[in-house]
Amino acid sequence: MPAHSVITIDGPAASGKSSVARILAQRLGYTYVNTGNMYRAMTWAVLETGVDPADADAVQKAAAGVALESPVSEGQTQVCVNGRLLTVEDLNSDPVNRGVSLVARVPEVRARLVADQRALAAIGPLVMEGRDIGSVVFPESPLKFYIDASEEVRAARRRAQGHADQVAERDRLDSTRKTSPLVIPEGAVVIDNSHLTLEGAVDAVMAHLK
Ligand code: CDP
Ligand code: CDP
Ligand code: CDP
Fold first, then answer.
1. Selecting from 3.60.110.10, 3.90.660.10, 3.40.50.300, 3.10.330.20, what CATH number does the domain 6-205 have?
2. 3-state DSSP helix/strand/coil percent for the chain, to nearest 5?
3. ipTM of the complex in this document
4. Which residue puts its alpha carbon closest to atom 19 of ligand 2?
5. Which residue among 37, 54, 68, 163 has its CA within the 20 to 30 Å range from the CA of 110?
6. What is the position in ligand 1's atom list of the atom closest to the CA of 3?
7. Which residues lie below 8 Å from residue 140, measured CB to CB, with a gap of 6+?
């Protein structure tokens, strides 16, 4: 078991998992960790080196030279690449959206980020959100959730955020990759929030914690 409790939240793209995780962490006073931003930061750094994200060998070599840190600020982890704090715009740019699932399928990249994610449990109780948190990163956590929503609702939510994002294509890559694909973790509570408000989705999670 981790040093502190870790509530794991997984789910497909634009299902609402980061919003739910952030509010839940605020309500509980836990630190919120968005692991997608760690894969996004690695992708941003790999793109900076001019490497094609589809070239797994080149990605692995470029990623090995990247220093990634996750300092905590205002109750959540940020991401720093080679000492530079990345912005929301950096992390959600079109090139990063297009490349991130390709970078995230490289086993060496995953092994390193999973180790970083486990080490974060030393800082205190966490709400950690991603694709493999309940299945691979903290499989022994007794508090696992899978936040889902229909494909139409997810595409509409992402459009409303104003980002060009091929949500269905990322889900296809994330669910079919060899190393830690997106799955419903064993023992996870599944919450479909297609027809729930954000607060309603957080309440649904809280109801299972009591
Ligand atoms: O990074 P470091 O080697 O110091 O730690 P780690 O072995 O990666 O584990 C960090 C935390 O994650 C520990 O509290 C482990 O108990 C926990 N962990 C876990 O819950 N499940 C695993 N399969 C591996 C580690
Ligand atoms: O917010 P959204 O659901 O669109 O994506 P994200 O959580 O920021 O994750 C971006 C990408 O990182 C995902 O599409 C996955 O390819 C990868 N990822 C992963 O492989 N494992 C995680 N634990 C988190 C994200
Ligand atoms: O992290 P993930 O990509 O799964 O989703 P998100 O960024 O938390 O949510 C995508 C958008 O849907 C955000 O603008 C949320 O405010 C919105 N949302 C919503 O309107 N109702 C919900 N029940 C959940 C999320």
1. 3.40.50.300
2. 50, 15, 35
3. 0.89
4. 131
5. 163
6. 14
7. 1, 2
Sheet holding 68-69, edge to edge: 68-69, 80-81, 84-85
pTM value is 0.91
pLDDT tens-digit readout, 62-119: 999 999 999 999 999 999 999 999 999 999 999 999 999 999 999 999 999 999 999 9
- Is the CB of residue 196 below 6 angstroms from any atom belonging to ligand 3? yes
Judged against a pLDDT cut of 70, whether residue 1 lies above it is answered with no
Residue carrying the six token digits 């300092």? 71
State the average pLDDT over residues 3-26.
95
What amino acid is encoded at 37 in this protein?
A: N
